[in-house]
Design a protein that fits this description.
Elements (H helix, E strand, L loop, with lengths): L2 E2 H8 L2 E3 L5 E2 L1 E2 L9 E5 L5 H4 L6 E5 L11 E5 L2 H15 L5 E2 L4 E2 L4 E2 L4 E2 L4 E2 L4 E2 L4 E2 L4 E2 L4 E2 L4 E2 L4 E2 L4 E2 L4 E2 L4 E4 L4 E4 L2 E4 L5 E4 L4 E2 L4 E3 L5 E4 L4 E2 L4 E2 L4 E2 L4 E2 L4 E2 L4 E2 L4 E2 L4 E2 L4 E2 L4 E2 L4 E2 L9 E2 L6 H12 L1 H21 L8
Parallel strand pairs: 4-5, 5-6, 6-7, 8-11, 9-12, 10-13, 11-14, 12-15, 13-16, 14-17, 15-18, 16-19, 17-20, 18-21, 19-24, 20-25, 21-26, 24-27, 25-28, 26-29, 27-30, 28-31, 29-32, 30-33, 31-34, 32-35, 33-36, 34-37, 35-38, 37-39
Antiparallel strand pairs: 1-3, 2-7, 22-23
Length: 351
Amino acid sequence: MEFTAEMIAGLIGGTVVGDPQAKVNNFAKIEEGTPGCISFLANDKYEHYLYTTGSSVVLVNRSFEPREEVKATLIKVDDAREAVGKLLQIYEGMKPRRKGISSLAFIDPSAKIGKDCYIGPFVAIAEGVEIGNECVLHPHVTIGKNAKVGNNTEIYSNAVIYHDCRVGNNCILHAGCVIGADGFGFAPTEEGYEKIPQIGIVTIEDNVEIGANTCVDRSTMGSTRVGRGVKVDNLVQIAHNVEIDENTVMSAQVGLAGSTKVGKWCMLGGQVGVAGHCYLADRVQVGAQSGIINSIKKEGAIMGYPAIDYNNFWRSSVVFKKLPEVYKQINQMQRELDELRAACGLAKDEG
């Protein structure tokens, strides 16, 4: 597919500066651009690449004014990063979707398959399954008994949806993700740990994206729920009975323990861990590697765990080990100071 700068500007409400007939057929980072590519500049740190890039067209913010000669054609937009995202969506949407059912797929006769679906080789669909219209199931996908998948959902290779689970419309499940494995429920006995049956399900609502090798466990009873518009990165663990409200995002290796409740529009950085039965209010932001052991009830709270200088870290570690002893010494000094003030006839708050 080939587009001119003029056509692109029309799609995203931009203004062409340069050759309106400049043609592009691919995307590239500005530092790696070649003729026929479109790039974008949204960060001043990359401005120097604009003057050397081989890209034919570059998206820039309307406020941007080049300090040197630019060979590429520019398209000025309100927000270059947002504009390139829109273009990528348009580009992806123009790709033809595959249709048809492979002769190597197994589909139980009781399953219901919607219109215009693609079901690849070695897909296994069990009894009672319902697949919506225009779904794409890549090779080796497994759908368990009585599970339901909505319209226009794409499921990549080796993803597994366990029995009775629900996946909504317009979802993307990436390779290797597992929806509905048993929650981690065991009761200690004298002879070891006795498994507690996990008889609930997982419900994934519309417009959700689940990353590769992410696991969403079925509930003990009821349903683990991933709300509308939630985006989950790779290698995330969502335990039994967790509830994630709409439009929350989570980076790689986040772990949510059982019965955690996460509000709307929250942002959890990489490797964040949340203890069981905690509640996170709407729009809470949690920095990478933070450990949440208590509920965060303040809407919009920002929690962090920033890195510190290496030498400072080791000095701080030494102090941390001695904190109980230091705490006792401070208390003792406070008592002695209070006694001295009393002897001098001074109140505690007087210097």
